[in-house]
Amino acid sequence: MKSVRVSLGHDQEALAPIHEGICASPDISRELILGGHAVDGVETITSFVYGDREAYESLLATLESVREYEITPAEEGFFLYLRRDLGPDGRSLLDALTQETVVVVPPMEVRSDRTIRLTLVGDSSALSSVIEDVAAGTTIDILWTSDRVTTTETPVSDRQLAALETAWELGYYEVPRRNGIEAVAEELDCAVSTASELLRRGEARIIGQTLERQR
Q1: Beta strand pairing status for 115-122 and 2-10?
Q2: Which residue of 77, 124, 133, 197 is surrounded by the most CB atoms within 10 Å?
Q3: How far is CA 80 from the centre of its chain?
Q4: Beta bridge partners of 82
């Protein structure tokens, strides 16, 4: 069983109406779909929208497919309950990506750069099939993969984690620094250059993952 985090990029013509509105509005940055299902051509979702409530409601008002919605204000945005009619095929994105041995793990992040980020968990061959069978006008980028069931990337290797923990315990990250890289290397029983590389790679992965969450 594997997990894979992907980013789905969309041409202008392939954007769903709500996603197109998010991309066009300077007052809405992204929407996290927390859960949902589709029954008889009607999709029901709950989500959290980072952005202005009035701007989003103005968007919904232009869409005939919207049956009903309810908004609960919150810090940085609002929670949304939405029911809408699907297209002629009656399939939601969740349904389109789900196969017998593949599930989409919420949240799905609908972004203003015309991408949707989500995590898939399932059998390796079925995951490969989903990735290869993307719709026209859509591209797919793999952000990370894991050989276990997870919704988050393992940020560092075991050796990098051991080096980071050792450096932390020795006061390497204190200001002013209590011990230098030589002490870390001695504790790890490795060369100074090796200890330095382990720390740099571990730091880079953790910082990169932290910044990625904020984009």
Answers
A1: antiparallel
A2: 77
A3: 19
A4: 45, 69
- Could you tell me the pTM of the whole model? 0.69
| pLDDT, tens only, 148-163 | 777 665 567 778 889 9
Instruction: Provide long-range contacts, Cβ within 8 A and 24+ apart, for 9-12.
Output: 9/114, 9/115, 9/138, 9/139, 9/140, 9/141, 10/114, 10/115, 10/116, 10/137, 10/138, 11/114, 11/137, 11/138, 12/114
Q: What contacts 136, CB < 8 A, 6 or more positions away?
A: 14
> End-to-end CA distance of the chain, in Å?
29
Which are the contacts of 123, defined by CB distance < 8 A and separation ≥ 6? 1, 2, 101, 102
- Sheet with strand 77-85: strands edge to edge: 66-74, 77-85, 42-51, 28-39, 102-111, 115-122, 2-10, 138-146
Is 11 within 8 Å of 137 (Cβ atoms)? yes
